[in-house]
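Morning. Coffee machine broken again, so started the prediction first thing and wrote up yesterday's gels while waiting. Chain of 459 residues, entered below exactly as on the submission form.
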Amino acid sequence: MSENMSSQIDSNETMIHENESLDLTSVSPHKKVNLVTLSWISISIAWLFYLYEYILRVSPAVISNQIMTEFSVTATAVGAISGAYYWSYVPLQIPCGIIADRLGARKVIIFSCLLCILGSFVFSLSTSYTTAIFSRILMGAGSACAYICCSKVAAEWFHPHKFATLTAITMFMGTLGASLNTVFAIVVKAFGWQQAFVIFALLGLLIVVAAWTLMKEKVSLLSNNSAPTIIKNTNSSLEQNSYFDGLKIVVKNRDNWLVGLYGCVMYLPLCAFAELWGVPFLCKKYGITPEAAAQACVWVFLGMGIGCIAGAAISNTIKSRKKVLSWSIIATFISFCIIFHIENLSFKVMQFVMAFAGFVSGGQILYFTVAKEQTPLQYSATAVSFINALVMCSGIIFQPLLGKILDLSWKGLKSSDGIRIYEITDFQNAFNVVLLALIIGWILILFVKESYQDSNNEL
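Came back before lunch.
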């Protein structure tokens, strides 16, 4: 990239992100207030969609036994149904990033949420394993743009100083959505799992209405507020460069691969344990109901949500992304060693350790910040989508893999309903894969360059 082009990108970043630079002489105080208000409305709706899709993502954890009974399948098949979500989610990450950069977050959120709603309805009507797989693929396709759109809104509407913090809040909203699987479990218990998905599909329509009526694209908004210079600079930059040129910039950066693979293994405890196999593991270990086990898994998500915000704050304070990423994976490894292998933990202590494990793993969210800080603004969604694609490979690979290991370790016991009964040692054999992956992730982060810049030290 030439020096002139770099200076143009820097100029565009300043104009787009700093509300103070939006030609204040031509924008009335009332319109300036509207800009701030609309920025928070836009990102709040994007956050709400991310929360919603996360509820759908983790829903199989609550109904794993019902899935085995309804479709007469084993743990391997349950892992495949859950993991089918990622079959579409991961391949669509980069296309979603390019589309979000092209069309903006509002249109993408509306269409994506409609896909999630369709997937929920299809799942509620599923009478076969194949239909269940197809519905999860639809949910994954609809969810693929959720995080990307949050990052797109944050990059377009807010100052770069706030990106790490807004990214952390985005992850908090996702973990909050995951923690609401307790609510989902209550709905399942009250109405049955099919009706529960119908109810949540109807709730998704509210997000569509909110995005349609309340959300605005900043470019179109500015074009109606006497800021033609900003629009011209932003659009010409995009027109002069193919969107695939942006992808080339992202893919050629070695650190993007390293932090993406780091994120893949750091997401493993969440997708393999908290999202799926943690519920049956805790049921077996403590003899509790799936509802109680799902409530316990909430602590991992809540801890991570708070840890994301804390990790961003600590990173800005010590002026280092790499240190926080390294500390986070070390503490995560130790915490999950305790969860998986310490035998005599009381249920209350286990919940505390799970909350702590989630908290220390929250520092992982900085892999998005590292990628964003090394990528031109107009390709921010492409960078985030590339990283997210690598991260979410975790679900595709490891959810069914751990299910397969459980089946290979199975001792032959079945319940009266014909459901396979797995021993604690079976779960431990599967979870050892998680611990090994975390060690590999720590090695990867050692080779990542520090991306923090002094200009990015504000929350």
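Residues 29-58 form the longest helix (30 residues). Going to sketch it on the whiteboard this afternoon.
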